[in-house]
Please model this.
Amino acid sequence: MPFPEATAFSPNFAAAPVHERLGVCFHHSGMEFATTVARLLQPESQVSYHALIDADGRRCVLVADENIAWHAGASRFLGRSRCNDFLLGLAFAGDTARRPLTAAQIASALEWLAPRWALYRWTLARMTDHRQIAPGRKEDLHPVEWDRLHAALAERFGND
Model:
């Protein structure tokens, strides 16, 4: 049975002529689900994700895939800067340094990724987290949780 998914579009995005959707940058929000959604709906926050996943697996879509969410800031991946322009942002509610990802969060992320994986021709090499694209500036996901998520991605989608 699919996880519930609501839509609450954030005003914090840029329309892209063509968002490349080359991969995904995973985040944790540092806050609980409802608090995070409320913050992302405020224009003054100037931050957004494409989607946010709660501990129970429910999701909130905040920015359409074809638009640029403001999730990565100063960042570098695949030899390029400005990761917002080419990576979708998927966040987990909470702080992975304080509380591990739940099984429901991982399962919901895999469910969200599944229809996009073949459509956008993603590979594991196109998956990253905020810590890796903004080293020294960001600490999400916790390395242990990134390893868990990466293993789940490999199991579900293969190692290519």
